[in-house]
Write a structure and sequence with these properties.
29% strand; alpha/beta; 10 strands; 5 helices; 8-stranded mixed sheet; Cytidine Deaminase, domain 2; globular; 2 domains; two-stranded antiparallel ribbon
Length: 201
């Protein structure tokens, strides 16, 4: 059923926040699977969606392949998605499958088809493109929802993605952990540098 203008606006008006852990996981996934290639990586987003606010708190990598010559040919292991999702539910029942990510850096022709696959698990899958090799400083994520676009001339509708703003937001526990890590790294670096200078004198 085609989305009305009000439905499209309600999708865009959602607040999407992505936890830093998700960015780290996606960057690690890319580093292990596709670094030095033109391939992209795909994974599942977990979190909470109350209709207005979407909190992406976790993710996991998914086996994914696509033909470089023909982007309409791709494989995503949905059996793996289902078994991993079941395991994550046992660990944290509050985290639900809310969408998927890929390493972009932009939308691709097959994204709408992949998004349709994720509708098996959630009615409005969120797509977050995580730029694992950003060229400029800023938020390395772009969030999208798929909608059916109604044409003014009465012809058939087409599916398209609408962009919605996203932010990177850590929970208090994550912030404290990162601050401690940075403090420890800073202290170790200072200690090592002062030790080297002292030994050279």
């Amino acid at each position: 059923m085609p989305a009305t203008t009000a439905e499209t606006l309600s999708l865009v008006a959602r607040n999407v926040s992505v936890a830093p852990l998700v960015l780290l996981s996606a960057a690690d996934h890319y580093g292990r699977s596709a670094k030095g290639t033109r391939k992209r990586v795909v994974g599942v987003l977990l979190g909470q969606n109350d209709g207005k606010n979407i909190r992406v708190s976790n993710s996991f990598a998914v086996p994914f392949e696509e033909d470089e010559k023909d982007p309409s040919v791709w494989f995503l292991d949905h059996n793996y998605v289902e078994s991993m999702n079941d395991m994550f539910k046992k660990v944290n029942a509050r985290e639900k499958l809310i969408g998927w990510y890929h390493s972009g850096p932009k939308l691709r022709a097959s994204d709408l088809e992949i998004n349709e696959l994720f509708k098996r698990y959630t009615p409005d899958p969120l797509l977050v493109i995580i730029d694992v090799q950003p060229k400029e400083v800023g938020v390395p994520t772009d969030a999208y929802f798929a909608v059916e676009e109604i044409k003014d001339d009465g012809t058939t509708t087409t599916k398209t993605f609408v962009h919605t703003p996203s932010i990177i937001e850590a929970e208090e526990a994550e912030e404290i952990g990162v601050e401690h890590l940075l403090r420890d790294i800073r202290d170790v670096a200072v200690g090592t540098l002062s030790t080297r200078i002292t030994s050279q004198l």
